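Please check this today:
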Amino acid sequence: MDDPLVTDDPIASQTATLRRHIGLEEREGMLKPVPRRGRRPLFVVECTPYAPCPANCKLATCDEPINFGVSPVCLKEWPLHVSGAARADADFLDRILPVTRLTWGLRKISPMSMMDGNYLCSAGVERLVLEWKYQRGRWIDESDGKEVESLEATDPDLYVITHKAGSSSFKVSGPPPGVNPGEYRLSITALAPYESDGPEDTEEWNLFDDFLSNDKESLNDPHDLSKMLTRWENYMKFAFLKDDNLSEGAKELREEMGEKAIRAIKRLSITPMPSLRVD
């Protein structure tokens, strides 16, 4: 029987390697769980800190180091890229997690390193990854013939906070039951997906509309997540650069972005930090 790790297709090879690594084997087209000790591996999206000699990716099909910047990597025994492995199934999708003030403990980061700003994702990356995961999870369930209810239907209060904050139609009314007040404040400020100039604004900017694909065919693109994150990183750089430091092409792109988008991207580029206070 051919070894699925030996293939001329680097995507198939990378996917097979990752499936084995997270405790799944592909048999007759199905993912069959394999017992593992300890917690299951995570695919984290993190802001990898700068290192003079970055760690090498452990995938045999990848010769790139784990470089500085935002990237999706697989944790546990190996550091490895997951940018080229198909994730259009729930077994991969459920394990994807952005490293944030709420999840940094799962990454096993030292508090000192984390408080220096290492590994934690910006507000924009946090919102994009979670929405990307939610959206694609719904698509996968729909393709499997499952009945899927929207967040707006199942939890309208949470939907308004996470999807309408920043819009002129959003009304600040305080956190609903079960929502942490601090997280509520973050959700309607730094994490808000909308940027608006007020009630008369008919062209409000929306993070998800600008960066997320609404095409279900994107489930077949193994690089979909990495493309979105790369685009965000590029736009964030353009938002902070002064015109004197931009090429003509970059100036045109910045003009296409518009002042409202630039303002929003600057706001979403901050990194919400955790509270380490012990009460």
Observations:
- The mean pLDDT is 78.
- Residues 123-143 form the longest helix (21 residues).
